[in-house]
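Good morning C.,

I know you're traveling, so I'll keep this short. The sequence:
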Amino acid sequence: MTKRLLGLLLVVFATVIVLPTFATKTKAAKIEEYNLGDTMTYAERNWDNGRGLCAQFVNECLSYGGLDLSGMRVKDLYNELLAKEYGTSYKLTLTNGKSGSIRMSDNEGKVKKGDPIFFVCNVCGEFEHVVLCNGANSDGYVQDYAHNKAHNGKKRTYTYGHCGSDNWTIYSISIDNGDTLKTPEVKSITGTAKGVEVKWDAVKFADSYNVYRKQPGGKWTTFKAVKGTSYTDTTAQNGKTYIYTVRACNEKTMSGFKPSAEFKFVDKIKFISISATTKGVKLQWSKNTAATSYYLYRSVDGGKWARYATIKGNTKTTYTDTKVESGKTYRYRVRGVSGSSVGAYDSTGVGISYLKTPALKSIQNTKDGISVKWNSVQGATGYRVYRRAEADKGWTYLGVIKGTTYNDKKVQNEVVYTYTVRAVLKNSLSAFESGITLRHIKTPEITSIVSVEKGLSLEWETVEGVSGYYLYRKAPDEKSWTRIATVRNGNEYVDKNVEEGVEYTYTVKAFFDKTVSAYNKDGVTHKFLRKNENELDCVEADDDSDDID
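The tokens, ready to paste straight into the viewer:
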């Protein structure tokens, strides 16, 4: 027994000694120099050499092609390929869910000739098998070279019963190399102010990219070879629909291509005007016949752009943004839209520093003109004041002031004036109200007060164009004025309700309809003395005197 065992061991030892090691290259090449032909040649010659298990066989094939590998177990080989970034892992689709064969058409871009295919058992959860893809047969099914369960490269890749169940998840690792360039995916197509911008993902080992364009139903035209991953088609025409595709290229080969979705080019929208109104910011732009609607974008105080509104149809070319705040700066862009195609836009857009319309508070006659008041506006650095007389066809600009009150001294009696105000911030102006109107009435001055037998006789200036006068009086112990008479005819009055030796102060307002003039706040003072009927005694009124209604 001992001699027999010893003899058997010697035979085994001798067998191991004489078996040739698998052919390897002395130095593993870089991934860029990986040679698919060498890999497949080794697989064809060694698929049934009977040495090692499935992982060792696939390892030897890929190493002969130029990959630096050491993993001899299925899972180790899978992880090492990914760790060294030799390829990309994809989960493959099987013809029967988790069993069956693999169709190339169901796994486009995920597996190709020379890629290892890994089997993971869904029952035990382990990597159990690996084969080398040999492309597809005439029916479109993936074929493989497999070492244990030997396949000669002409047999379909299929699942088999394991752990008592035909239940697998199958992965490929698509090897990246200079002989097989991946098909670029068009990532985005965008309308810009210069034309249609096409972007795609970079493809490993590509030196350049050929860009192609066609119209639906037309033929492809080689449009441009570029080094980067984007290209702008400046010849695109407004309203026309295009399809784009890209092929990766290097000195050895050219990738496949995948057409993009259809894209209708909608040219840049031109703004006509932007202005502040009493309701907000009003925009107007030119109509684009290629658009079916418009997207409005807004940026506030230099912040990020955001899509703000959708205007349906292409005939409405105005929009008023009512959600604005006084003192803030707004910029706008408009893009034409047709289906899923979004058109070009002006990168800078149009902008305005919005100011709220000043609210006119009051207008009144003063002793030397007309006074206008308004509410202050957030963000305004000043206010422009405008005036229009009844006979004027347009507004007259009166100047810019810092405050919220303006006294117009260049007015004429009997003339009706309308005033309005616009807030100012640098080059931006607010909208303005229709205005506030007042008839200017000159302030009448008392010219004579004399004591007569019946009281104090007063006379004042005649004001042209008025309906009459209001006469006011204030006794020494009174702080406010009391209206004592309304005189509609003439310009004189005798105050009979006076007492001997008492000083009275008088003032007068002229009126026309409901409009009144200003008045002399100091008034004219006179003491009632029957013995000095012809004396005129005028003194200043008390500084504490109140305004009168």
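Safe travels,
E.
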